[in-house]
Structures are given as structure tokens and as C-alpha cells.
Design brief:
CATH class of chain B: Alpha Beta
Distance between the termini of chain A: 52 Å
Number of domains of chain B: 1
Largest interface: A-B, 45 and 45 residues
Bound molecules: thiamine diphosphate, iron/sulfur cluster, magnesium ion
Structural class of chain B: alpha/beta
Helix content of chain A: 25-40%
Order of helices and strands of chain A: EHEHEHEHHEEHEHEHEEHEEHEEHEHEH
CATH architecture of the largest domain in chain A: 3-Layer(aba) Sandwich
Largest sheet of chain A: 8 strands, mixed
Radius of gyration of chain B: 19 Å
Helix content of chain B: 25-40%
Largest sheet of chain B: 8 strands, mixed
CATH superfamily of chain B: Thiamin diphosphate (ThDP)-binding fold, Pyr/PP domains
Distance between the termini of chain B: 48 Å
Oligomer: heterodimer
Number of domains of chain A: 2
CATH class of the largest domain in chain A: Alpha Beta
Chain lengths: 389, 299
Amino acid sequence: MKADPKGVLTGVHFMDGDHAACEGALAAGCRFVAGYPITPSTEIVERFAARIPKVGGVFIQMEDELAASIAIQGGVWGGQKVMSVTSGPGLSLMMEHLGYAAMTETPSVWVDVQRGGPSTGLPTLPAQADMMQIKWGSHGDYEIIALSPNSPQECFDLMIKAFNLSEEYRCPVFLMMDEVVGHMTERVNIPSADQIDVTERKWTKKKPGEYKAFATTPEDLVPEMVKAGDGYRIHVTGLTHDERGYPAMDVPNQAKLIPRLLNKIRNNVHKLVDVRMDGCEDADVIVMSFGITSRVATAAIDAARAKGLKVGHLRLIICWPFPVALIQQLARTAKAFVVPELNMGQMVLEVRKALADVDRKVKVISVPHPGGTVHDPETILEQILEAAR
Amino acid sequence: MSESLDLHLASVETSLDNPVLPFLRQDRIPHIWCPGCGIGTSVNCFCRALSDSGLDLDKVAIVSGIGCTGRTAGYLNLDSFHTTHGRAIPFATGLKLSNPELNVVVYSGDGDLFAIGGNHFFHAARRNMDILVICVNNFTYGMTGGQVAPTTPVGPTQTTMPYGNFENPFNLPFIADACGATYVSRWTIYHVRQLAKAMKEALGKKGFRFIEVMSPCPTLYSRRNRLGDGVDQVKYYKEKSVIKNGVDTKEVGLGYQGEIVVGKFVDRERPTWLESMNAHYSHHFGDAFQPYGVKNGQD
Ligand SMILES: Cc1ncc(C[n+]2csc(CCOP(=O)(O)OP(=O)(O)O)c2C)c(N)n1
Ligand code: SF4
Ligand SMILES: [Mg+2]
């Protein structure tokens, strides 16, 4: 399906990442946003509030993030595409409802403009320290998808991709921005609506009576969807449920439901690899980065190459699910991975985990940063040199 | 037990040809509620109200939080959502705003709506969100085993108030009134006819509407406090209730086993959130604004 032109601000713009993210959501068909202000994400909802009256939809500022993160899910079951937007403490408040979205297979986009933490931390300064929270922060086992843009243009592009993936997999999808990407102004090219592919909700063609809200087949683990008001009389619950959506709190139903919720994503990990690779084929050292850090890393990589080193750059666009097989494949030739990130060592753990199954000895060097600013490229360069030794 | 009470209870009993059965998900019966629990009686009244309302039931959605009352959504043959503890109202807000043709009802417990969810209640009422909120007030946290609730009167013992509750309870109709609800009433499950009528009336109105339903929890509240079982509580409701329609909601606070003021306290008109939004943007943008969620000139 192509984008609805009403939401597409076709043209070349100079805008920051927050504004571009909002335009991405509008282009993707988002027509309901419930939010609560928090720096540095607020501009996204401010723009949405200004734009939506004429596009046709609703913005509501809720009383807190608990409300915002469940109001959007009511919005989905009413039939709209939705997103909620937050940072830092707001993300912590949303954790229970992240689990509700995963459990009820409510397609929804969650934007986290990361700032320094924990607690109130550094409200106006960047970090990438929520990468593990989104993956593990709600109780129980669940899977999400997370994308990480490094420019305003990507905030636009990846927002559309986030919406499309949330519809395809019926799961929460995160756009993991950070304060720098959110506030940096660059050229953003918004194509015409007929050049933007949007994924329609997986509406069922079955009739009421034939339709079971959470029934799937072995080939397709994503159930078909309906909305309230269409005569299907669905029941949706966060309790462990059967195919009808009815509470079924026993071991067999848990053993059926939870693996399906995980496997609808895990079985498609190969399809969900989205990376940019530069010079990785014959590299001795591979720098793995994501988001704003990828732009800083490029400077360090260029400097190392100027010294004659063979350095590759692996940039994650989709961070979750983590591209385990790709890391293992690169480890057949590379000697070392260097992982700079604006946290004290989060995604580097995934690299280590992936390499645990690799016979060769491959060095993994973490380049942590407590946040508040970006890395000094010099620090990354030092670790590349160390890795190459 | 008085004869009239006997008759009264017989009239709400569920028999196989009970007219409310089509409103229930019969494949989910038996329900989880204890014998003597009042939640089922309130649901019975709600089914009668739905039946009498003439509403297209495909366009009625029910949203519950978590608790014994929170299980109500799962038993009604409507589009039904069992959400998270305290958050039925914001979920209902999203549902209503994304699909304004739905008649959205929140059905939940006193702890759910006024402890963990209190903030959402205040704001939805302030905004005049177009939803009906039905609160089954059993003065306790039933689902988790009888802990003190924000409605527990001063006096009775609860598992987390082992020497008797010393906290002041909320006066729910007063809160709803003060926050701007367009319709506020209170009944007990003794008053089945009045309750069903109030529910029907509220279903037909617009704006943020609130009905408090006093209901026994024999398992965790009345027996533990030597107040007998469900029937004894209904008897208390019968004996101590006074109907005072239109009374100032300040005057309707509940004391321990004291007088119960019931009736319709508030019935007024205020533009709903969506009506206000549409009016405001129509004024601001003129013809460039297409009123949202409006079909055939109505919303
Ligand atoms: C976030 C969260 N905290 C606590 C609970 C546990 N819990 C479940 S129901 C409930 C209280 C329910 O009381 P009420 O709303 O009065 O419903 P009742 O069971 O009395 O009908 C609590 C505390 C929960 N499910 N979620
Ligand atoms: S515990 Fe109390 S409120 Fe819950 S079902 Fe039993 S009687 Fe009803
Ligand atoms: Mg209760």
C-alpha cells in the first residue's frame, strides 16, 4: 500500500531529527498519538499536535506516561496506527505497557529519544543507555524490534520502517533516537506519497464466528487482526490466553503462547538484519556502532585507515533482534571487534554472546561512555589501534 | 432475612432461560466470582441495561482493569478489553478517540479505579472524555486477598490493616462531581431495578459518566469483619439506604456500616473532549478543518 498523501510533507526540508521523526510517523499513517512531555523528545509530539488537526487524527497529552503508553494501545484496537514518544524516566514508566503490547500483539511504535541516566540524569544531553531496558525492562519473556537512526533523514525513513514492521510482526517496535540525533538539523528529503510503501494492518478476511483473534498457523505465527466495533466481539487480555483470546492460565497454554510470541520474531531474524557495512570483507578490526556513535566512529575509522590498518565499519540499523549470525560470519576473518557506545557497555555484551559459539579467538573491546556528549574519536581510534596489535 | 429480600434475590438469580444470557460469553461460564459476591449481580443489571438501551451491541466496548471486578470484561459478549491494573480509563480514552462511534464502558473495582488508577479518573473526568465508568465498590482489594483499599471505611480489619483501618476513605461521587463528571449516581446491588435503570440512562448520555455500585465481598470483607455473608450485606444495604436524588455529593461519604445515600446526584451537560476539540479547531482553522469522528453530522 502507498502512503496517504494527507500525511506526507513532500519536499526538501531542513529539520531536526525530532521533527523528521514526526513527519515519518505521519507519512507512515500514524493518526493517534498519546504523549507526555519530556526532554529531549517533546518536539516530536509538539509537531504532531500542530500537524494532526489538518491531517485528520488525534493528539492527546495524557496525565503521565503510564496513561500514554496504554492509551495508544486503546487507539490500536480502535483501528488507528499509533505511537508514543518518550525519554529517560518516561520510558521507565512505560515498561508495564510494553509487556502488555507484546502479550496482546498490539502493533505500536515507541520512540525513545535517549538521554543520560539513570533517574533524572542528564535531561538535555545524549546517551544510548536504554538499549537493554527496552529488551529486558518489562517482566517476563518477550521480543521487540528496535531501529537506530543516525541522522534526521533516517529518523524519517526508519520511522516509516518501524511502523511497517510493527504491522508485519504485530509487536512493539522502538525507534531508538538520542538527544544529538533528535536535535541536529540537516537536510531531510521527503518523497511523494506514491513513493512511500506502508504496510497495512493484517486485517482478517474471516467472518465473525469463523475468526479466532489469536489463532495462527505453523507457517505464519502472526495472527490476523480486527478492530473494536466490527462485530467480532473480541476479547483481549494480558493474561495468558488461548486462540480465542480467552484467559487460559495453565502450563500448556503458557507453553504454546510464549514461544509463539518469541518465535514470530526469532524465526525471522535473518529477514530482520539491517546493517550498513563498509570495508568489513577483509578487515582485521571491525568497529560495530549504532545511532549517533556511528558518525563519530567514522572519523576514528578513517584515521586508522590512514595509518594503513584494515578496519571495517558495521553499523546496526536494526539493533534488536541482534544480528548474531552476521557477527559470527564476520568473526571467521576479523581478529577483533571494537564497540563504542554511549553507555557503559550494553550492545557489546551481544557481540560477546555471539562469539561464545565461535571457535577462533576474537578480541572484543568495549569503548564505553557514561553519556552527556559523544565519544572523542581519538578514544575510539586508540582502541582500534589496541585491537590491531 | 425479610420476605421482600428473599423475593428480590430470587429475581436476580440466573436461570437457563435468563434474558441476560445472550449478553454473556456463555463459553466462559462458570465465572470465578465467589458465592454471595455482588459483582455478578451488578453485571446482571448491566446486561439488562444493555438490553433495554436499544444500543447496537457491536458498537459497545467494555474495558476493565485488574481485579475481581476487572474480570467483567471477559464475561461480556462485547468487544472487551482486560487491560492492566489501574489503566482501564486511559485505554478506554484511546479506544474512544480512535473510534468515536464506539460506546465505551469502563467496568472495574474501587482499588483499580481510585488507588493505582486515581490520577486517570481525575483527568478523564476533567476532560469530559465520553466514557461511562462503573465502579464496583466492595471496600477492599478482592483479587489480592483483602487488603485495605482507598474506599475502606475507618474501622474494619484488612490484611494490611490488621488492627483495623485508620485511613480516611474517598467519597467517590464527590470526586467524580468535583472533577466534572456529567452524570453521577450510586446504588447498591440491593437496588437492582434502580441500578439497571441508572446504567441504561447513563449509557444513553454523553460525557464522563460515573456509577458507583456498592457490592459485598463476603469472602474477604464482610465475613472477616463478622458482618456475615453476601445476604447479610444486602440486608444492611436495604435497611440503611436512603434515596436522595440531587443531594450535594459532599454529603454522601460512607461510614462503617453507616447510612448509605443512594440516588442520582449529578446530571448535567458539558461538551465532550472531542466536541470541544472539533469546535475549537473548526473555529481556528475554518473550512480547512474536517471535524474528526463525525458521521452524518453527529458525533
Ligand atoms: C501494577 C500492579 N500492581 C498490583 C497488582 C495486583 N493487584 C491485582 S488486583 C489488585 C486490587 C484489585 O482491587 P479492586 O480494584 O478493588 O478489585 P476487586 O478485586 O476488589 O474487585 C491488585 C493490587 C497488579 N495486578 N498490577
Ligand atoms: S474475593 Fe470478594 S470480590 Fe472477589 S469474587 Fe470473591 S467475593 Fe467477589
Ligand atoms: Mg475492590
